[in-house]
Amino acid sequence: MNETVPTHVEIGDSVIYQDLQDEVVILNLASQQYYGLDDVGAAMWKLLLDRREVASATRQLATEFDVDSDVVRADLYALIRQLMESGLLKSSPLQI
């Protein structure tokens, strides 16, 4: 599982989302498919969109959930790969 993920991400083209209490519902308008994220997935999604830098989101999640950063990194990378495969996230150019 040494697949790499981009250092920076942004929301995919033709994607909208809505916060619903502790969850997030995401719709890919191009594929007409929708996805739901639970409270932890929603926190990851929001931090990725807010920070756009994967390393920064990893650090924040580790602190916020009081979890080892290696565990957070593995979970976050797995989610990012799934979101990118579904067209919900895409690689973003470095933000300077």
Order of helices and strands: EEEEHHHE
| Percent in helix | 40-55%
CATH class call: Mainly Alpha
| Shape assignment | globular
- How is the main sheet built? 3 strands, antiparallel
What distance separates the N and C termini? 29 Å
> What is the count of β-strands?
5
Strand order of the largest sheet: 2-3-4
Say what the CATH topology is.
Answer: Arc Repressor Mutant, subunit A
Number of helices: 3
Q: Under the CATH scheme, which architecture would be assigned?
A: Orthogonal Bundle
Unreliable segments of 5+ consecutive residues: none
Total individual domains: 1
Mean pLDDT: 92
Percent of residues in β-strands: 15-25%
Radius of gyration (CA) equals 13 Å
What can you tell me about this protein's structure?
The chain has a three-stranded antiparallel sheet with strand order 2-3-4. A two-stranded antiparallel sheet has the order 1-5. With about 100 residues, it is an alpha+beta fold. The chain is globular. The longest helix has 17 residues, at about 70-85. The chain has three helices and five strands; from the N terminus they run ββββαααβ.
